[in-house]
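Table S4 entry, Histamine N-methyltransferase.
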Amino acid sequence: MASSMRSLFSDHGKYVESFRRFLNHSTEHQCMQEFMDKKLPGIIGRIGDTKSEIKILSIGGGAGEIDLQILSKVQAQYPGVCINNEVVEPSAEQIAKYKELVAKTSNLENVKFAWHKETSSEYQSRMLEKKELQKWDFIHMIQVNENLLISNFTSDHDLPK
């Protein structure tokens, strides 16, 4: 039986509204802040002790708010170290917002950004096809779980406004 669900990525307005509703009825922000404050420093402390470059892969980076918090913590732990931050995000609108946020944010001189408008599956397939397998110091999928959950709440009656 074929699924009647449409991808939220085909309708950016619907995606944004679904995401807003999800956040209004979840503890995602509190959980994320707790992770950033309590767990992330220990993880970051193990990734770059002897490196001249730290490579970070962000799967589903969204508009970049969480990514920039992570980058700030990495920069604080490893001042002056070059950070290569690659973002895989299927929404062109989210990538545009991410780029706007980067343009407005100071202290990113040592961070190089690369954005890939594709899903994680498309990115993986492309890397395997090109045989461009890379090693990453830190990979995060902050927005991915939200997107999977949100995709289950696409109709107006699924979540209260």
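The chain is about 45% helix and 15% strand.
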